[in-house]
Every structure is written in structure tokens, then in C-alpha cells.
Amino acid sequence: MEPSALAYLGAGLATGLVALGTGLGIGRLAGPAMEGTARQPEATNDIRTTMIIAAALIEGVALFGLVISILLVIK
After folding, report:
1. How far apart are CA 29 and CA 70, in angstroms?
2. Which of 2, 58, 66, 69 satisfies CB 3.0 to 4.6 Å to 25 for a cystine?
3. Phi/psi at 40 (5° precision)
4. Is residue 67 within 8 Å of residue 18, measured between CB atoms?
């Protein structure tokens, strides 16, 4: 098998795993945030702010994974 074929395979697997991990991470974040908002509606703004910051960090990791996948395909 050629090295370029392995790079494409690695890029595809990496992209899929990054998407799966990001979806699971944001799902695990949003569920408890919704429960917390339902239990304490007065804390909605604090919960939302914390959730958005955490989601941005998760998306940042996903972006790094995507960049690495693109670098694998280009190289």
C-alpha cells in the first residue's frame, strides 16, 4: 500500500473520530446544562455562559483535529 493511500485513510479516520468525539462532548455538556436550567431557571445566564465557553473549547479541539487531517492529505 502506498504512503499516500495510508495518509488518506488516516485523514478519514481522524476526521470521523474528531466528529464523533465532538458530538459526544457537546452532548454530554448540553444535557446537564438543560437539566440545570430546568431545575434553577434563575441560573440560566450563568449556565449558558459556562456552557458556551466549554463548547468553544471542545470545538477548538475539533478544529485542531480537522487541520491535522487536512495536513495529512496535503502532505
Report:
1. 27
2. 58
3. -135, 85
4. no
Q: Cell numbers for 23, please give them.
A: 458530538
Q: Which residues contact 35 (CB under 8 A, 6 or more apart)?
A: none
**Which cell goes with 18?**
474528531
- Per-residue b/e over 22-42, b at no fewer than 16 CB within 10 Å? beebbeebeeebeebbeeeee
Name the residue with cell 496535503.
74
For residue 26, the model assigns a pLDDT of 94
Cut 0.70: pTM above it: yes
How far is 19 from 23, CA to CA, in rounded Å?
6
